[in-house]
Amino acid sequence: MVKVSPSILSADFSRLCDEIKFCEKGGADMLHLDIMDGHFVPNITFGPVVIKSIRKCTKLPFDAHLMIERPDKFVKDFVNAGSDIITVHREIKISIKNVLRKIHNYGAEAGIAINPETPFEKVKEHLEDVEYLLIMSVHPGFAGQSFIEDTLEKIKEARKYIDEEGLEVQIAVDGGVKHHNAKRIVDAGADILVAASAIFNGNVESNIKKMKAIK
């Protein structure tokens, strides 16, 4: 069964704990936390303080997706706030290998994300050092964008490589994931669907159950 990771960026921040409880009832497997610094992407969201405040609301794993220029400076803060997975971008200008090592040293699982314009080839050498590959199917920064169809080929390429190499890496897809395209994304090889508006617009519980029922 496909895993579903609701992105709380589209949740009602005035009642985050309630929204998270709805996610639990729907069978969410983890929560996706979009962290933006206004530099790496043209938006600012939230940081460790918010994560720490909602950590008490649930035992679901937290995936902190760090869309920031210097994730190395903040890994400890996000882990201490309650993040179980730290996902960083291949496109950062510092050593990705050192950041991934730091994530593991602090006891969290590591993910590596690639933007739509970044070829899969760019992350191959790092896949032995991560538990997750996050393939962005929109340009990161804002919720509500349309799925970039070319992403399907990248997912297929990643799936083939990971399976052939026998790697223990789960493929997550983030951006424009809706009920109408979720099956194609899963068929291409995704293990985890990251969805924002498709989950939080309407009945959260039923939206998640519908997405998890995709085969």
From TrEMBL:
Keywords: Carbohydrate metabolism, Cobalt, Isomerase, Manganese, Metal-binding, Zinc
Catalysis: reaction(s): D-ribulose 5-phosphate = D-xylulose 5-phosphate
CDD domains, per the entry: RPE
EC class name: isomerase
Keyword Isomerase belongs to the record: yes
Protein's UniProt keywords contain Manganese: yes
Active site: D34, D174
Pfam short name (any one): Ribul_P_3_epim
Role of this protein: Catalyzes the reversible epimerization of D-ribulose 5-phosphate to D-xylulose 5-phosphate.
Protein name in UniProt: Ribulose-phosphate 3-epimerase
